[in-house]
Amino acid sequence: MAPRTVLVPLFDRVQSLDVTGPVEVFAGAGPALGDPCAGYRVLTATLDGGPVRTSSGLTLTPDHALADAPAPHTLLVPGGQGTRDPDPRLVAWLTEHAPRARRIVSVCSGAALLAMTGLLDGRRVTTHWAYCDELARAHPRVEVDPDPIYVRDGNVATSAGVTSGIDLALALVEEDHGRDVALTIARRLVVFLRRPGNQAQFSAQLAAQTARREPLREVQQWITEHPDGDLSVEALAARARLSPRHFARAFQTETGLTPGKYVERVRVEHARRLLEDTGGGVAEIARSSGYGTPEAMRRAFLKTLGTSPAEYRRRFRAPLEA
To answer: Where is the signal peptide, in residue numbers (predicted)?
Structure first.
């Protein structure tokens, strides 16, 4: 099979990780397939064919000028500070050429560039959480979902900030070449194989503020590492060497979440990862995630995610044990 061409338009003040993260994923497909020439042909291009400077100060040298670039199978539009006041010629090029691509992808605020072309009108999309409101206000015909790390709507896929571009690229590789190839690439990059698109942009640890006081920070870390432990307020308070009442008040003040809500988020996230990436039985996963019974985990999933563990696993195709 001929390699699919992936074209990445570059511009001044592009976010370097929006480019290099997905590029490393696509570039890893050939070696994972056992043929360096298979998988994808990844190309970069700028308006005039000259180098650009990223928002972090790196200089990127393109393969082509956009006018000379071959028609891509996948057009990947990165984000960065340069999307806030883009060159009108870039928007015009995207307006004309993006619809010709078989697959259109954006990372972070690259969605803003696509929105300027009208390609996102009537579509559900996402972008970096910091830009969601701005994108929705500027383009009211675009349905902006601020929560997931990436969204697929037809042949258009949009992702949230920076590293979520890696998650989306891995999902696309898995779609094109299978789970084993994507897993090989993920292992080489030392990242998760695939965070599902509907995973929130904020994990429990990111959604909560990091506590200022060291005992509370240690408790946060301990919860994450021991979801199956005794995570009652009394047990956590003893670990922090505080009274239960003082601990509960201090934890919520410093993290923005009650201890119970934080524990709930950590346990659901732990169970989700196991359902996505292992073949363990539901009862086993319930125990290791701190739920006394599969029914308790089922209630937590229905409350938090609106779906059962079995349906969640089926949706994301994690293999079940025989």
So the answer is: none
